[in-house]
Design a protein that fits this description.
homodimer; 10 strands; 5-stranded mixed beta sheet; alpha/beta; about 20% strand
Chain lengths: ~290, ~290
Amino acid sequence: MEEKLYGGVEAGGTKFICAVGSGDGTIVSRTEIPTTDVGQTLQAVVDFFKQNSAIVSLGIGSFGPVDLNPSSPQFGFITHTPKAGWANTDIKGSLEKSLGVSAVLETDVNCAGIGEKFFGAAQAAHNFVYITVGTGIGGGLIIDGVPYHGAGHLEIGHMRIPHEPLGDGFSGICSFHKDCLEGLASGPAIEARWGIKPQDITAPEVWELEATYIATALNNLVMSVRPELFVIGGGVMNRGGLIEAIRAKLQTSINGYLDLPSLESYVVPASSPDNAVLGAIKLAATTLA
Amino acid sequence: MEEKLYGGVEAGGTKFICAVGSGDGTIVSRTEIPTTDVGQTLQAVVDFFKQNSAIVSLGIGSFGPVDLNPSSPQFGFITHTPKAGWANTDIKGSLEKSLGVSAVLETDVNCAGIGEKFFGAAQAAHNFVYITVGTGIGGGLIIDGVPYHGAGHLEIGHMRIPHEPLGDGFSGICSFHKDCLEGLASGPAIEARWGIKPQDITAPEVWELEATYIATALNNLVMSVRPELFVIGGGVMNRGGLIEAIRAKLQTSINGYLDLPSLESYVVPASSPDNAVLGAIKLAATTLA
């Protein structure tokens, strides 16, 4: 019997990663598509899958907010995203119709979390938080391999944290909240504050401040969610030394109130930039087999 | 057949509430015991239950931190509490031994949450957060009637929130973190900041600031946990108008980023000061019947 194949899409604000695989953590075909307008981008996604082996079903990990409530009229939609042209996009429905297969939609971070749980850095964790620090800041709580949903998906980028003295002159860039976590510590926030793209910044005080904000967010998640592990991905985390600085500042922030595991094993980097697409394929294989 | 009876204890830093009931939300016998030293307090608890009808089992909702990990050598203990004389108290084991019944230990807020879910303000909620604002600040997430545990129980009082300008002269009283949520907004923090007991303070700016801190914590829990509902109890919440002020400030803090239910039905007061002891009885009846 031939092995069944599933499709996975990581729908990002900058690019879409599409891949075909069997749900075991390997990829047989993969492409990246720049995110332009809805019609052009989704057509390129459809073209990729049509050129490949038939897939049984499709998993989609998308930037958000997304509507994951099956009883909602907007179920399967990217809803009121600030990303121009993408608000109220029926990403699940459009791809199902064009490809003739069923699709399952999740947030990008929840798919990345599934990828890390089954194939990456979180295989031993019963309960962990996956965080991305990039164009935005998002996170997902994965319990026994399943993304946790409350009244909706998590929005950890919009928690409020102390606005550190060093950053006092900067008001934050979130269009809803100014100085929430994402408004202070996302890639675009770093660039807006310092006037230089994050990848070109070497000044230690920049990364010291960034580590402080991320560590404060981790402190708050420790207290609110008590995960066994944090896995952190996203472009900003490519900065050498940043994860070590975050660990040290988290230690300072907790200040012995709780007994944490060794920080090197408690706060770890994402295992692969393909974790979300691998998780999306796994999600399709397990829920729409 | 006679109805089975169960014991419930809310172990608080100021008083212990003990009650006997059948697990249906009614209480047949109840007492309050001042919290003094471990020996005297637990003896009074034992005396109460021995004077009453035989109980099948006992539920205990305790102040913390408590060790809820069955594989830990300190399972069933109040661990490193700052409360003098109470650190490393085997509350579950002692009461089991003295009363000759099995006991189940939970946090006080998780028991209060169970009480609110089955008999109180959260009966319709699939997923909600119970918060107490009193001598300390704590919270529990209840999912389908069961307290959520990650690597341990939640410690929401120790999240970090922006230290508002109005409070800048006050450094906070948490012995671990100074100006964490509990260090800024618990009853003792209010008293330390203003030099007056909370129940005697009427100045609007005091309650304005308190509402800001609690609303910021709710904002962070909305983003990190996405509950369907908040139920808030604890002595500080007895202040008239406080919950209304918290709702208004939460609205401002979210600022339209998420669609919340009407705030009057989303942030509600605890239904009863006996919610924790009712929840403890229910927990005993459902897990140790």
